[in-house]
Specification:
Strand content: 5-15%
Enzyme class: transferase
Cofactor: Mg(2+)
Organism: Microbacterium nanhaiense
Pfam families: Phos_pyr_kin, TENA_THI-4, TMP-TENI
Largest sheet: 9 strands, mixed
Strand order of the largest sheet: 11-10-9-12-13-14-15-16-17
Protein name: Thiamine-phosphate synthase
Helix content: 40-55%
Low-confidence stretches: 1-5
Radius of gyration: 29 Å
Length: about 700
């Protein structure tokens, strides 16, 4: 196997992918154009010279490689021989991109080695399914398209369009996909929505007057993402702890752009409300219409509406919108301080507005008022009232148990059918909870606007609401936990809305939560449990020769794995984390290898194809701390989960009892929990691009784990 490929310093980054097509560049300076594009932000460059001879293409590839010096992933289109010749010459070329007629992905992988990058073009459903079924480590990514008709691919099949691209990417399984064919500036949002990991462009850069500026614009468009516009319709709190002031802080902290239409002005501080002034309703209508005529509104949080006229104005405005945004209604009737904020007529007028909302977020007193009942004295009673309210109006209700007694503070998202999702946090002993309801509801609206595939599609996404409620719950818990660090007023002080920014955390995202990652790999873990090797090992019927094959490859793996664990320690800037990864590296050699030797593992054998590919993936992840620890985690987490199942099958006289006992050790479970916590912290601090690479590395490691078990 030829394996002298330059190792990339991180997994391939597909965000801004330049196909440097020699026919498009023509007489232009190829090296300069590519150099300028990379300086502007191109992350991957594929050199395509279909009309060039091998010698001329090799000259261009080596010249570009010398100029780039590893600043971007550099690939050769189709011509495996040219890639191999460039590598023999010492050029910093990372791999190849091939089509369906270029010899087959597995055969090409054997030629280029485990460390080289291999991309594959695929558009037809059968080709996508075949690519998804390949063993891990064969193909690194897919180029999927054409999205639109393109002059650089006149023989391409019927364009997919964005819906077709989304369907194709779904067929590709875990493989990252770059959208190609007729795409360019202005397409990043649609490509991301379809699930693409990047845009591959030709003319947008190759034919640009300023390739650096063109690449920069494409990269910035991709990285910018989409910040939702979230409108708070609520009253004002001059102390800054509640009302629109709290809403705007919460919206910004959870990743949105905040806007506000003021329904009432209050005179209040942390000790209570002393006065309320309600501006003319016509002026509220003017505020709302001015916004909807000009600004895309992705979500609306509704708070204090002082009287029936105000409520009717807001309901009329929402009902008249051409595109209905997500609506969260916090029926501000009774403040945390106990003050009544809504008169009786307004309370009765709420019914029509509730029907226009997606989620209602009442406190216990408000929940009781809305169902004409007594204030719930137990969590079970609160959930039943929430279910009643949800059924009455066809909405979701976020029931909040913060005012109940107990060591925990529960929340639950409730539908007419019952609890959709529930969450709880340790109760915090603090008086500084002013504005909690306002902050939670605006955070919920904002996170949903970011998490839902289309927050103005009309049909609510219950799964996205459940995740948004959970993330908002966790965020508000942190804001309350940090509240005592502020010094505002002498009564019920405000939350610390800025705590997460000071801690270096990015706005809450489902993709940064590790139990969402685990959900992604459940089919892989189920497959490991169902594979013959693991089943036979647990039952004690595994052939001894197969077990010897496994432990021989495990020895090969562990030596390299320990070095990568040590590398994670080197890359960390936290002393405690450094110590953990170093201790894990020592355990991988000392503890595990002692068991291997007792089982007869002698001299090291050559790495199998599966072992080599797994280690190459980990090695490729080792240039970036966050990506490396994400790639290492499945060897903790999957090993522990599978191991607990195997350990439960251990018994006296089991032929592999000594091995199974190691799976269920409390020490390894504790180490696994530490590893999960460290990766969780890294994920919450990662920017979106790094987070995408982390998840990609985690899922691919999980696929390698299954292949590693199954090889025996």
């Amino acid at each position: 196997m030829f394996d002298t490929a330059l190792k990339p310093v991180h997994p391939i980054d597909l965000r801004t992918y330049l196909v440097a097509d020699m026919a498009t560049i023509g007489a232009g300076d190829v090296v300069r154009i590519i150099d300028e594009a990379v300086a502007g932000g191109a992350t991957t460059v594929q050199i395509r010279g279909k009309q060039l001879g091998d010698a001329e293409l090799l000259r261009i590839v080596t010249a570009v490689a010398d100029r780039l010096d590893g600043r971007a992933t550099l690939l050769v289109n189709d011509r495996v021989d040219v890639y191999l010749a460039a590598r023999e010459a010492g050029a910093a070329v990372h791999g190849v991109h091939i089509g369906q007629s270029d010899g087959g992905a597995e055969a090409v992988r054997e030629r280029i080695g485990v460390h080289a990058v291999l991309g594959l073009s695929a558009a037809a459903p059968e080709h996508l399914a075949e690519a998804a079924a390949l063993p891990p480590g064969v193909v690194d990514y897919l180029g999927v398209g054409a999205v639109r008709a393109t002059p650089t691919k006149p023989d391409a099949p019927e364009p997919l369009g964005w819906d077709g691209l989304a369907h194709a990417i779904a067929l590709a399984g875990d493989l990252p996909c770059v959208a190609i064919g007729g795409v360019g500036p202005g397409d990043a949002r649609d490509a991301r929505a379809a699930g693409a990991a990047g845009l591959a462009v030709v003319r947008a850069i190759c034919a640009a007057a300023d390739p650096r500026a063109a690449a920069r614009a494409l990269r910035e468009e991709w990285d910018r993402g989409r910040t939702p516009n979230v409108l708070s319709i609520a009253g004002s709190d001059p102390s800054g702890g509640a009302g629109i002031q709290a809403d705007l802080k919460s919206i910004q902290a959870t990743g949105g752009y905040g806007m506000a239409a003021v329904t009432a002005l209050t005179a209040q501080n942390t000790r209570g409300v002393t006065g309320v002034h309600v501006p003319p309703v016509a002026f509220l209508r003017d505020q709302l219409e001015a916004l909807s005529e000009d600004v895309r509104i992705d979500a609306v949080k509704i708070g204090m509406l002082a009287n029936a006229s105000v409520i009717e104005a807001v309901a009329s405005w929402i009902a008249g919108l051409a595109s209905r945004p997500a609506v969260v209604l916090d029926p501000v009737m009774i403040a945390t301080s106990g003050d009544r904020l809504l008169d009786a007529d307004a309370s009765r007028a709420l019914d029509a507005l509730i029907a226009l909302a997606d989620v209602i977020t009442p406190n216990l007193s408000e929940l009781a008022a809305l169902v004409s009942g007594e204030v719930a004295g137990s969590w079970e009673a609160a959930l039943e009232q929430a279910r009643t309210l949800a059924a009455r109006h066809g909405v979701l209700v976020l029931a909040k148990g913060g005012h109940l007694e107990g060591d925990t503070a529960p929340d639950a998202l409730v539908s007419a059918a019952g609890v959709v999702a529930s969450f709880e946090s340790p109760r915090i002993d603090t008086a500084n909870t002013h504005g909690t309801g306002c902050s939670l509801s605006s955070a919920l609206a904002t996170i949903y606007a970011r998490e839902a595939a289309d927050p103005v599609a009309g049909e609510p996404d219950t799964d996205a609401w459940a995740w948004s409620a959970r993330l908002a719950h966790e965020w508000i818990h942190g804001a309350i936990l940090a509240a005592d660090g502020l010094d505002v007023g002498q009564g019920n002080g405000p939350l610390d809305h800025s705590y997460s920014a000071r801690a270096g955390l990015v706005a809450p995202r489902r993709d940064a939560e590790l139990d969402a990652w685990w959900g992604d790999i459940v089919p892989i873990v189920d497959g490991i449990h169902g594979d013959d090797f693991v089943k036979s090992l647990g039952e004690g019927t595994l052939d001894a020769a197969r077990f010897e094959t496994y432990i021989a490859q495990d020895s090969v793996y562990l030596f390299a794995y320990s070095e990568l664990l040590a590398r994670a320690g080197e890359l960390s800037t936290d002393p405690a984390e450094k110590a953990f990864w170093r201790a894990s590296a020592e355990a991988a050699i000392a503890t595990e290898m002692e068991l291997h030797r007792s089982r007869g593992a002698g001299e090291r054998v050559p790495a199998s194809r599966e072992t080599a590919r797994y280690l190459a993936h980990l090695d490729r992840s080792s240039g970036e701390h966050a990506v490396l620890v994400a790639a290492l985690l499945p060897c903790f987490w999957i090993y522990e989960q599978v191991g607990l199942t195997l350990a439960a099958k251990n018994h006296d006289g089991h032929p592999f009892g000594d091995w199974l006992s190691t799976y269920g050790s409390p020490e390894f479970t504790e180490s696994t929990q530490q590893a999960i916590a460290l990766v969780q912290r890294a994920a919450r601090r990662a920017d979106d691009a790094t987070l995408a690479r982390m998840r990609q590395a985690f899922v691919l490691s999980s696929r390698h784990e299954r292949a590693f078990f199954a090889q025996a």
